[in-house]
């Protein structure tokens, strides 16, 4: 999309021709014009009745727009923002989620299928520190669905009334993350309960008990006629058990 001014005049552009706008930033007439024209072109390309991206709908929001430009040409834009969504799974269970969403995505017709969309998308993933399956997609067009399938192998989803697409991997990874979190918290707990001082305490206690047990066995052998061996053993074992469980339960409480 050709403008009669350098795009870098109204927004900062990096060496790759990328700019990142946010809804809270200062705006000017030229910046407004870029957002307005690109928003209208995107709506037209998607056959939408309503324009999704316009200066008035963008400023004062927490949304972001990634722009790719070259001199006076704006090649594409990608708008993102967080939404509160209700997602129903196949069993009818509804989950409330707040994913980052792709709200509007457009590459100028003259440069489509040349990798500009991928470049914009990758820049957004890098800056937002997110992977494609963790995003929601607002009413994706067949071209966007093709794009996601081709570049990121995303295709499985359950259609929703709100028209947002959330790929099944969003939830699979969530489960995986939960498992990872659980595993890492268990390993943290293990590390915590295995701090050298505790291990040392337990070790010295065990060795004390071993020494006592050996001494008492020797003593028992000597006194085998006067005392039943199991009486001393049982008492000692009970003492050992009580001391060990005492130490362990102290550690468990500390963990909590
Ligand atoms: N028909 C079918 N698939 C297409 C088309 C097309 N005309 N254009 C791009 N794609 C998909 C294909 O998978 C294509 O791979 P292929 O050429 O090997 O078949 C892949 O995208 C190409 O990747 P890029 O070159 O990186 O993508 P591009 O620069 O074309 O940007 C985009 C993709 C943004 C979808 C662009 O095609 C576009 O602006 N389309 C019109 C507007 C639109 O539909 N936007 C998405 C709206 S939904 C939303 O914003 C949430």
From TrEMBL:
Acetyl-CoA binds at residues 105-118, 141-150. GO terms for biological process: regulation of microtubule cytoskeleton organization. GO terms for cellular component: microtubule. Its EC number is 2.3.1.108. It catalyses: L-lysyl-[alpha-tubulin] + acetyl-CoA = N(6)-acetyl-L-lysyl-[alpha-tubulin] + CoA + H(+). It comes from the Eukaryota. It holds the Pfam family Acetyltransf_16. Residues 209-238 are annotated as: Disordered. The record marks 46 as: Crucial for catalytic activity. Residues 210-219 have a biased composition (Low complexity). The keyword Hydrolase does not apply. Keywords: Acyltransferase, Transferase. The keyword Acyltransferase applies. InterPro entries: Atat (IPR038746), GNAT_ATAT (IPR007965). One of its GO terms (molecular function) is tubulin N-acetyltransferase activity. Residues 229-238 have a biased composition (Polar residues). It is an enzyme of class 2 (transferase). Residues 1-171 form the N-acetyltransferase domain. Belongs to the acetyltransferase ATAT1 family. Specifically acetylates 'Lys-40' in alpha-tubulin on the lumenal side of microtubules. Promotes microtubule destabilization and accelerates microtubule dynamics; this activity may be independent of acetylation activity. Acetylates alpha-tubulin with a slow enzymatic rate, due to a catalytic site that is not optimized for acetyl transfer. Enters the microtubule through each end and diffuses quickly throughout the lumen of microtubules. This is Alpha-tubulin N-acetyltransferase. The lineage of its organism: Eukaryota, Sar, Alveolata, Ciliophora, Intramacronucleata.
